[in-house]
Amino acid sequence: GQEIAFGDSGREISVAPGDGALATALLSAEAGDVLVLEPGDYIVDRTMAIGSTIALRGKLVEGEELPRIMFARPTLFELRQGGNLQLKNLVIDGALTPDSVGNSMIRTTSFPIQSNMRIELDGVTVRDLMVNKSFNVLTLGKSAFANSISIRNSNFSNITGSIVSAAAET
Question: 40-58 pLDDT, tens per residue?
């Protein structure tokens, strides 16, 4: 099918901070939608499945810090068949995550993905992915193929694993 551009083809959905607010907004999002996060803290207590083209962007407000996403599961985003993800102007903090084998902020599903994916991080700060010795930012599983992985203007600190782990293939 035709590739859907990030943020150019869907709705812009404003999301206010709060426990569960981001996961609830993502459930109602459709391909091409942009979730615009207001400044504040977002606590996510489940892995959020991405099966279409979705963008999450922090709203820039003068004098305010970027929106902060904290997650309490081993994985924040799981890319599935048809999933493409853009993260922009956000802080992602792993301080609440449990100590589990294979922790990763973004990962592909364990099932083979038949479509190519796109992942973009722009202006993102990722920190405190350190509850175990190999907590990755992005883990690409076996048979996953990315058209592009783009990381720009982003900062990573206190991470015990890799920024991009794509070692599942021999």
Answer: 999 999 999 999 999 999 9
